[in-house]
Amino acid sequence: MNTTPLDMAAAEALFAFWRDAGVDACFEDAPVDRTVFVAPTPRATATITPIRAPGGAPSIDDAVAEARRLAAEVRSLDDLAQAIAAFEGCPLRAMGARQAVFARGNPQGALMVIGEGPGAEEDARGQPFVGQAGQLLDRILTAGGLLDEAFITNTVFWKTPGARPPTPQEQAICAPFVERAFALLKPRAVLLVGAASAKAVLKTDESIMRVRGQWRDWRLSEGGLSVPAMATLHPAFLLRQPQAKGLVWQDILNLSARLATGAVEPGA
């Protein structure tokens, strides 16, 4: 069967929509007995294989501990950027990334924006959200009167191979640095951009369509700090599905109004 380029583009856009909406399974032609355990194939677990040290023992705990130690020692965002650049515990560093990509924006702003991870453009320029999706994010934040208040970072600081979403392990290793950035910034609200960011920060398996637009409480495991956090759709998704821009605009108006009035209580 010959498939026209238009058909392929439509199919890719549809698949991308369902992926970003949180759909990760589909019905099969015949029922499957889920009470019978079938070991997953290597391909199914390839993206979540534990990081291993040269001796073969898992090293993710060591990497997280080292990240936590380094993050705890820094006293400024500049020092944090240097600590991230020197950190060698994240496996993404050795997967083709040119450099660490930490943050951009206002370090005294009231809003912290957390995306998934840098792409090729960000990897080349050393700043997050500077490609086509980042330009759209800036326009959205500007329209909501939030760009000047925003400090923008990601859940991981090195680009992923093939622009895939970061794995939970990669996010866990970088999480101490993200949490330290929050502790130093003390923002009044956090905007989580995309499904991978929302799941990592809010510790949830809910789809982005279910959690977007809701205020949740992001509470650090240490120090007792907490902040209201809202998830929204990723601008890369909006480039593929522009009809969803209205949903994001609702979220931005909600965020902007609450920052303006100071009413940013979680669960509101």
TrEMBL record:
<keyword id="KW-0227">DNA damage</keyword>
<dbReference type="GO" id="GO:0006281">
    <property type="term" value="P:DNA repair"/>
</dbReference>
<keyword id="KW-0479">Metal-binding</keyword>
<dbReference type="InterPro" id="IPR036895">
    <property type="entry name" value="Uracil-DNA_glycosylase-like_sf"/>
</dbReference>
<keyword id="KW-0378">Hydrolase</keyword>
<keyword id="KW-0408">Iron</keyword>
<protein>
    <recommendedName>
        <fullName>Type-4 uracil-DNA glycosylase</fullName>
        <ecNumber>3.2.2.27</ecNumber>
    </recommendedName>
</protein>
<dbReference type="GO" id="GO:0051539">
    <property type="term" value="F:4 iron, 4 sulfur cluster binding"/>
</dbReference>
<dbReference type="GO" id="GO:0046872">
    <property type="term" value="F:metal ion binding"/>
</dbReference>
<dbReference type="InterPro" id="IPR051536">
    <property type="entry name" value="UDG_Type-4/5"/>
</dbReference>
<keyword id="KW-0234">DNA repair</keyword>
<dbReference type="InterPro" id="IPR005273">
    <property type="entry name" value="Ura-DNA_glyco_family4"/>
</dbReference>
<feature type="domain" description="Uracil-DNA glycosylase-like">
    <location>
        <begin position="102"/>
        <end position="253"/>
    </location>
</feature>
<dbReference type="GO" id="GO:0004844">
    <property type="term" value="F:uracil DNA N-glycosylase activity"/>
</dbReference>
<dbReference type="Pfam" id="PF03167">
    <property type="entry name" value="UDG"/>
</dbReference>
<comment type="similarity">
    <text>Belongs to the uracil-DNA glycosylase (UDG) superfamily. Type 4 (UDGa) family.</text>
</comment>
<keyword id="KW-0411">Iron-sulfur</keyword>
<dbReference type="InterPro" id="IPR005122">
    <property type="entry name" value="Uracil-DNA_glycosylase-like"/>
</dbReference>
<keyword id="KW-0004">4Fe-4S</keyword>
